[in-house]
Write a structure and sequence with these properties.
By secondary structure, the chain is mainly α. The chain is built from three helices and no strands.
Protein backbone atom coordinates (compact mmCIF):
# COMPACT_ATOMS: atom_id res chain seq x y z
CA UNK A 1 0.00 0.00 0.00
CA UNK A 2 1.38 3.45 -0.84
CA UNK A 3 2.50 5.89 1.84
CA UNK A 4 -0.04 8.31 3.25
CA UNK A 5 -0.06 11.69 1.56
CA UNK A 6 -0.53 14.89 3.53
CA UNK A 7 -3.90 15.32 1.81
CA UNK A 8 -5.06 11.84 2.87
CA UNK A 9 -4.00 12.50 6.43
CA UNK A 10 -5.89 15.81 6.48
CA UNK A 11 -8.99 14.11 5.06
CA UNK A 12 -8.73 11.42 7.73
CA UNK A 13 -8.52 14.02 10.50
CA UNK A 14 -11.43 15.96 9.01
CA UNK A 15 -13.64 12.87 8.94
CA UNK A 16 -12.66 11.96 12.51
CA UNK A 17 -13.49 15.49 13.71
CA UNK A 18 -16.91 15.36 12.08
CA UNK A 19 -17.62 12.33 14.24
CA UNK A 20 -20.44 10.87 12.18
CA UNK A 21 -18.63 7.87 10.69
CA UNK A 22 -17.12 4.76 12.20
CA UNK A 23 -13.47 3.93 11.56
CA UNK A 24 -14.64 1.24 9.16
CA UNK A 25 -16.70 3.76 7.18
CA UNK A 26 -13.82 6.25 7.13
CA UNK A 27 -11.43 3.57 5.91
CA UNK A 28 -13.79 2.67 3.08
CA UNK A 29 -14.30 6.33 2.19
CA UNK A 30 -10.56 7.03 1.84
CA UNK A 31 -9.69 3.68 0.31
CA UNK A 32 -7.59 2.25 3.14
CA UNK A 33 -8.00 -0.76 5.38
CA UNK A 34 -9.17 -0.39 8.95
CA UNK A 35 -5.75 -1.61 10.09
CA UNK A 36 -3.99 1.05 8.02
CA UNK A 37 -6.30 3.73 9.39
CA UNK A 38 -5.74 2.57 12.96
CA UNK A 39 -1.97 2.52 12.47
CA UNK A 40 -2.01 6.03 10.98
CA UNK A 41 -4.06 7.34 13.91
CA UNK A 42 -1.50 5.88 16.31
CA UNK A 43 1.29 7.65 14.42
CA UNK A 44 -0.65 10.93 14.46
CA UNK A 45 -1.33 10.64 18.21
CA UNK A 46 2.37 9.99 18.93
CA UNK A 47 3.35 12.97 16.76
CA UNK A 48 0.91 15.22 18.65
CA UNK A 49 2.16 13.94 22.02
CA UNK A 50 5.79 14.75 21.17
CA UNK A 51 4.86 18.19 19.81
CA UNK A 52 2.98 19.14 22.98
Amino acid sequence: MPAWSAEEEQRLLQLIREGRLTQREIAQKIGRTEAALSARLTIIRKRIATDA
